[in-house]
Amino acid sequence: MAFRKKAKYILEHNPDIVVIPECESLDKLKFTADIPTPSDSLWFGTNPNKGLGIFSYSDFHFSLYKKYNPKIKYIIPLTVSNDISMFTLFAIWANNPDDEDGQYVEQVWKAIHYYKNIIKNQKTVLIGDFNSNSIWDKPRRIGNHTDVVQHLSRKGIESAYHLLHREKHGSEKHFTLFMYRHKNKPYHIDYCFTSADLSLRITSVEIGDYKYWTQFSDHVPLIVSMKDFL
């Protein structure tokens, strides 16, 4: 929340694209003069203090998929393009309290089936706060974290962190959420899943330092770097 007060710390990393769950609306984002203005931005939400923001600090621009399903409201399918390339990006904040079928990872499960025709093993990225981990899998419940991971894996889409760090889901050594900013309540719930062609281009996957980033949020950044992108 209050991204305008924290943007400069993210922008020190010179990102091309930033996905910010729990982001305030664009109307409230009044950056100071020393903070660069994004070349493109989108925001989705009903609470002006807490929605999903997507920002470009590069020549990439966003176009909302024409068959976007607002019932899966915080799984946002976008075409991202510049003059020479194009790919599909799903910006994710898995949080929909109004859905009786499940408000967290169940949202991702619904989305990867509803958008099955555009989730492919090429030029596809799913990134954001999934609010899930296999440690919370419910027995006999279809659509849990492991189901999502396995379904995407069959399409050749894998978590960038788990690929590079060679770790299994549920056994992560680095954490993206510290509940109430407490170091003794760590969880890994933020992910970047990439299609097979993009996975080959990944050079690093960084998880933000607890001491530094919890000054600003209970989440720390997940930063994925690629070479010769697309």
Flag low-confidence runs: none
Q: Give the integer mean of the pLDDT values.
A: 94
Shape: globular
Distance between the termini: 32 Å
* Largest sheet entry: 6 strands, mixed
Rg on CA atoms, Å: 17 Å
Structural classification: alpha+beta
Beta-strand level of the residues, as a percent range? 25-35%
Oligomeric status: single chain
The helix/strand order is: HEEEEEEHEHEHEEEHEHE
Describe this structure in words.
This protein has 230 residues and is α+β, with helices and mostly antiparallel strands. The protein is built from six helices and 13 strands. It has helices at residues 7-11, 105-114, 145-154, 160-165, 196-199, 210-213; strands at 17-23, 40-44, 51-56, 61-64, 75-81, 86-93, 124-129, 158-159, 177-178, 186-187, 190-194, 202-207, 222-226. The strands form four sheets. A six-stranded mixed beta sheet has the order 4-5-6-7-11-8. A three-stranded antiparallel beta sheet has the order 1-3-2, with no helix packed on it. Strands 9-10 form a two-stranded antiparallel ribbon. Strand 9 (177-178) and strand 10 (186-187) form a beta hairpin.
